[in-house]
């Protein structure tokens, strides 16, 4: 019996009215219903079901994904206790994507699509919740499978009826709060908001390897608290509650600095994850970021008429065209220059940059890069042509002092806690440091009895 005949025989043997037979059309074949053999000899059966609860119609339509996701997560919790075993493959390791918890809703990336989650196949519509059930069976007898599906469907119906309505309403309003605040960022003159007591640190699993879908860190997870010197912003949520946090302003250059392993990248990833909505308990519920965002990294690419003229005054040998229309294989710094320039041309609200994944010579000015490449760094543009930076920038760094000194505001992370960095004081100290460094360099040159003898000065500084 082929798989198409097999699934039809299974459907014939399902008597429970929750099976959504109206969806079993040829256009939905292999999407909403199918059978597939598994590597361990078992069979996966996928079918659409509809369960009814009259009180679902009282939920806010703008937060239904939250209520849907909470129902699914409640079912998963029961699965972890050994209930609804066909849905978890009896908690087999190879089937963990079926029961893996997920606290992310409305992620715009194509990640975690293999996990059971609120999506176009799992949703609330009126008084009905549509659930696409993926079930694992050892037997291959359609009658036996049909009977077990009937039992499972009835158990699910009874359990869904018992889920607390107040829990579904809380999750519903939680999602509405996040959507509403994200929609109001523009009127608040912000591109991002980091709510106080947010917990951006993540725990990863074999099926949740990306920070956007990873779960809350287990154990110690230091909450973010806005340093009082940065004047925490108060925002009112849709449900009337008022929360405080750090507001990142439009066109602001905001630096996150500190030593290694203090959580700089984690916080930046949390800000990027603010594009998504999160269930209660995720820790990132009130990290809210505009979706008009660009995360800029290095890497090389082939350019065909790309504009990097904001940063490059000339092109090195091997590339054709001009800085306004580059043709050829670009270096990491050129690629990054192009991506930043393109993002601003496209009107992106905020650009995220992590020093660890960047071309440092594009971020800070250097004598050698000026001699050899004619590169105008981001820090130089910040200093002399700030009006050309039309997007906000959030940048993490541990060593780029000049870039930090030119920022509008900054924090440093110490023991994973956010501390205020007084940039006026920092600039004064950095100036003293540079002067002392200059004296030391001259002393070293004098001790060695040398001066400038190379051709770089003569050929490039004239």
TrEMBL record:
Residues 168-433 form the ATPase of the ABC class C-terminal domain. InterPro entries: ABC_ATPase_C, ABC_ATPase_put, P-loop_NTPase. It comes from the Archaea. It holds the Pfam family ABC_ATPase. PANTHER family: ATPASE (PTHR38149). This is ATPase of the ABC class C-terminal domain-containing protein. It comes from Methanofervidicoccus abyssi.
